[in-house]
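User: Okay, second chain of the day. Same drill as before: sequence in, structure tokens out.
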Amino acid sequence: MNSLKQDNLFDLIKSLSKAEKRNFKLYANRQNGNHEAKFIQLFDAMDSLLEYDEAKIMKRCPVTKLQLSNMKAHLYNQILVSLRLLNVQHNSILQIREQMDFARILYDKGLYKQSLKELDKAKTMALEYNQYTLALDAIEFQNVIESLYLNRSMADNVEFTRQAKALCNNVANCNELSAISLHLYSLYQQLGYVRSEKDLNLINQYFSVKLNQYRDSNLSFSEKFYYYQSMVWYNYILHNFRNCYRYARKWLDLFETNPNMKELMYDNYIYGFSKLLDGIFLMNNHKRMVAALNMFQFERLNADKYNRNVKLIADTIYYYNKINLYCMEGNFDQGIQIIPTIEQFITENYNNLELHKRMLFHYKIACLYFGSRQYDLCIEQLRKINETKDPRIRRDLQCFARILTLISHYELGLDHNIGYQIKSLYSFLVRMNDLHTAQNEILGFIRRMTTINENEFKSELIKLYNRLKNLESHPYERRIFFYLDIISWLESKIEGVSMEQIIKRKFRNQQKQILTEKNS
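Assistant: Same drill. Structure tokens below.
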């Protein structure tokens, strides 16, 4: 758990690159001169610290407690202004807003023709980059000026009205589709995949009707983007991974065919790889997984030229799917070698990673440790999930983390209080409304383990294996197998070999079958 004290100004300063710090110093000295020496001293004092410490800051920067708050607010704003000036030449949206600012300045001086000219530039650029709201702002401002300084013909007025109506429709569609996407994402954060027919009906009744009214062939770039994003989440939650892959592919292709938008929205572009890779992994398609991850690795390296946010998204996707690939191949012992790098990444970016992303990382790392039979380290990772205070965040992960914790305790021989642990887990699953047949079967087996005769143990394992095997294709019960390869674990216990050996053997057989089918 990260216990560092948070401070917005300190976080902003620590996020600056060397070039940005140098640019700020040039800007601050040019703007403020020597009379603002304390202002620069505060920046240097905070920049020199590894973590926020107000007492140390006040020792290094001669200000009073009362002065510090105001000076921090001023410094925060000045850094943002310097960053805006530095980035405006590289960011099309900032350039559009700058044109709008120029138009306002010229308008205030009564230079209407010049103001309209700047607004035309802003509107043209906004339309080029699908920034419909900014284009509407430009049109609205143009109408204000025209009401004072008539410069348009009747035909121009009709065209402006038509254009404004079309933009309003674009904005309305984008708002609705982005709201649907956000709602679906929020549902996934809370619940994970659908757990029952009731869940399925609720999602279909609400979202299917809304999404079915759109046809991507009739949509603009931004509308298509939000539509594909919504369809990805919709199908992902419903376990329809083929459609999830299909729409993630459309998501990426949309940017590939619009390179100017790819450049502008690179963060949204690479995030499409996240759902593409998720769909491939859950379809268990190794060849596609390797190809897509290799393709993404190029994009990840390319992310360095953008900004910290893009780099964070790219590294999150890469590390998460690197673990998935190790799990798919059964290379657990090899996979644990990447764990220190991932843990350092989590620590360095703790405050920028959403809670549910940190939970996912801890769970995936736990799976690597479980597969390599390092059950104590597996439990330590799962503890970080089990300590989550908010039951609304990834209930699915919280449930399966507790199940995997229980199995790991059994593997370590820590079954002296197994009855209490199972009772506690039952209570938790009921409270989370996540107690289904597969979970019942597993918990019932673990409960009986302490009383099973050694001669009957293998036959009991086989019975559990057969019961769970029948649930693999069940539309809702199969959900448990997305989180834990319990079938391979049971096979390892039955055969008396490691889980890693079982998964590697399955992987080799799968590759041989694919090769045979290809050659036949």
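Residues 128 and 340 are 44 Å apart (CA to CA).

User: Thanks, on to the next one.
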